[in-house]
Amino acid sequence: MISPDPTAYDMAEHARRYARVSRLMPDVEWGAHFDLVKGIEELKRQRNALILAHNYQRPEIFHGVADIQGDSLALARAAAESDADVIVMCGVHFMAETAKLLAPDKTVLLPAPDAGCSLAESITAADVRALRAAHPGAPVVCYVNTSAAVKAECDSCCTSANAIEIIENLGAPEVIFVPDEFLASHVAANTSVRIIPWRGRCEVHERFTGAEIKEYRSAADVFVLAHPECPPDVQRAADFVGSTSGMIAALERHRPERAMLITECSMADNVSGAFPDTEFTRPCNLCPHMQRITLPKIHDSLMRMSPQIEIADDVAAAARRSVQRMLDLGGQRRS
Ligand code: 13P
Ligand code: SF4
């Protein structure tokens, strides 16, 4: 029996992956990534590693080396369900921490340890304790874009895909919701639960304006999809408001001729291949933290098995409860 030639397989796989980015990237650029992509694939096999990539990652990572792509909830669940020994999180620090909470026995690598998030940095565990003291009896729900130390102080975690569902399923008349004030106003507009917000903001989404959308709309008929981290006037001007996975599902349902994604702009690059009949137009804001992950850093991280995510046992136990509560309250569903 002739065994398959692994080099030939690599080339076929490489060509298949290029087909997904050929509209965005000249083949010379894709070729320039070849050695690193091959090296990362080899290290993945040696380490029994799984690469997870958030929807905002660079196309050469998203299409070139990722085994699983998705929103923050999908990535955390994939980490827990995988039988890999090593998880490489191509995303930001809170995503790597969440993966570690759900997969405590696995080694979780974050190739750029300085990949933070303005929302996660907007609130501390002490801030949550002070909010609880100011509003006795109100449960605290934290957005997944928070540190493990903050999650440890909360009753349940949520993501943008399930925030409304989690808050309603708590069954309380008022809920403290941290830290994103714009996601809080989105939830408040869609539920009868009274929301006590914090004043955190995403430095990327807060820059979009409703006026920009109106300007685009006056020039062309366009289906507008906005992330709920955008300001309220942007959300009001959009045809659909939802998480990154929710936006993809809405595109699948509507198949618009022209679409504008009001979110981190790598996402339109990453999903455009799956919607060849849709023309994507968008104002472009990049997340500097997401962009810190690069192919050389992924390769280096797998070589050195560093930097690894570690969470103190007492913090991890309490934070895991808050993530588990989200899953128990029905956080499996997507919106
Ligand atoms: P999603 O959970 O929708 O992927 O969003 C995460 C994020 O950081 C958006 O800015
Ligand atoms: Fe954080 Fe905003 Fe970047 Fe998402 S886009 S990781 S919320 S800074």
Automatic annotation (TrEMBL):
MF terms in GO: 4 iron, 4 sulfur cluster binding; metal ion binding; quinolinate synthetase A activity
GO biological process entries: 'de novo' NAD+ biosynthetic process from L-aspartate
Pfam families according to UniProt: NadA
Pathway(s) the chain acts in: Cofactor biosynthesis; NAD(+) biosynthesis; quinolinate from iminoaspartate: step 1/1
Cofactor: [4Fe-4S] cluster
EC number: 2.5.1.72
Domain of life: Bacteria
An annotated GO cellular component: cytosol
Top-level EC class as recorded in UniProt: transferase
Gene3D superfamilies: NadA-like
Keywords: 4Fe-4S, Iron, Iron-sulfur, Metal-binding, Pyridine nucleotide biosynthesis, Transferase
PANTHER family xrefs: QUINOLINATE SYNTHASE, CHLOROPLASTIC, QUINOLINATE SYNTHETASE A
NCBIfam families per UniProt: nadA, PRK09375.1-2, PRK09375.1-4
Protein name per its UniProtKB record: Quinolinate synthase
